[in-house]
Amino acid sequence: YRKKITPFQVISEFQRNYLGKLDTEILMVFLQNIAYCYLDAKCRLSNDTVGKIIFINKQRPSQPIVKVGDDIIDLSQQKEIYISELL
């Protein structure tokens, strides 16, 4: 058993462990659809800031773009920051 994880962490695990093992096109559509469910959702980032998911990257659905205050954070460009919780 482990503590709960966010859907974005699950998407990341699927990308790491199943791309190439499952039909890639179907897997990516499935993962994108999961990610799109959280568009406009409030989230807490690993740096303890709170923001809103404003864009889902089709190539990296586990790393959306988040707006924190007036700042825009592209999580695909910030390897050390991730969504730690959905609010």
Outline:
The protein is α+β, with helices and mostly antiparallel strands and 87 residues long. It is 29% helix and 25% strand. A hairpin with a 2-residue loop joins strand 3 and strand 4.
Molecular structure report:
It is built from two helices and five strands. It is of the alpha+beta class and 87 residues long. A five-stranded antiparallel sheet has the order 4-3-2-1-5, with no helix packed on it. Helix 1 (7-18) runs antiparallel to helix 2 (24-36). The longest helix has 13 residues, at 24-36. The radius of gyration is 13 Å and the shape is globular. It starts with 6 loop residues before the first helix and ends with a strand.
Level of helix content?
25-40%
Task: Pick out the low-confidence regions.
Answer: none
How would you sum up the major sheet? 5 strands, antiparallel
Assembly category = single chain
How many beta-strand segments? 5
Mean pLDDT: 94
Order of helices and strands: HHEEEEE
What labels describe this entry?
single chain, 87 residues, alpha+beta, five-stranded antiparallel sheet, 2 helices, 5 strands, globular
Secondary-structure map:
Elements lengths: L6 H12 L5 H13 L5 E4 L4 E6 L9 E4 L2 E4 L8 E4 L1
